[in-house]
Backbone:
């Protein structure tokens, strides 16, 4: 068995993986952030991610890691506070990155998300809601989120990101500070215009009653 914690499996997994096409063979496991970051940087279109994502989960087809989902604390304090207010901003988390290799059965993404949400409630029980964004610049409108019962909350404003020499996209706000065009140029980053993103929200809880109570008591529509 290949151990992804010890071996750089992502350089060759697509060459040796023989898809089972059967979700019964799939397993979802907790992984450390370094393994998750390595997978996302290789496979996700952004080639980058949050510096400290947590928690992170992997999708396995038998012994091969074929997918990854990262949760992370949203960079923007305003985004975190917009759901339940400033007092409860720490109860909000972002579904930061999601990727699954091709050649998987229909609905694999929504199945994977649901399994990760259950693990999230164990690993971070203080979480009441998950926010996520679909990047319309990449043609993503949020179909997977709709299939996973996320609510559509409108769109963000258009923005200018920066792309480095390796093709990695960087958010214009780094470590809580806005990056100027001059600072980006000094790093060798080029400005890239990005379209607005669709914004989604999922209220979570261990029971329907708990989710309903959370929604009714705290949610303020953005």
Residues:
């Amino acid at each position: 068995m290949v151990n992804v914690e010890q071996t750089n499996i992502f350089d060759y997994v697509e060459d040796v993986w023989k898809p089972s096409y059967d979700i019964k063979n799939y397993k979802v496991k907790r992984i450390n952030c370094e393994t998750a970051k390595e997978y996302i940087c290789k496979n996700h279109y952004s080639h980058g991610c949050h510096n400290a994502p947590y928690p992170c989960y992997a999708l396995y087809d038998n012994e091969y890691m074929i997918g990854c989902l990262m949760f992370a604390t949203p960079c923007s304090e305003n985004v975190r506070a917009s759901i339940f207010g400033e007092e409860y901003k720490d109860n909000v988390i972002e579904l930061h990155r999601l990727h699954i290799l091709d050649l998987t059965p229909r609905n694999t993404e929504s199945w994977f998300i649901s399994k990760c949400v259950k693990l999230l409630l164990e690993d971070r029980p203080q979480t009441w809601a998950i926010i996520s964004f679909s990047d319309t610049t990449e043609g993503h409108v949020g179909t997977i989120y709709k299939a996973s019962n996320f609510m559509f909350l409108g769109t963000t404003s258009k923005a200018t990101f920066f792309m480095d020499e390796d093709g990695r996209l960087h958010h214009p706000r780094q470590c809580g500070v806005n990056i100027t065009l001059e600072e980006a140029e000094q790093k060798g980053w080029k400005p890239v215009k990005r379209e607005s993103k669709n914004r989604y929200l999922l209220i979570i809880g261990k029971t329907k009653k708990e989710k309903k109570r959370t929604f009714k008591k705290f949610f303020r529509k953005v």
Observations:
- The mean pLDDT is 88.
- Residues 24-158+195-218 form a domain with the Aminopeptidase fold (CATH 3.40.630.30).
- The longest strand covers residues 64-72.
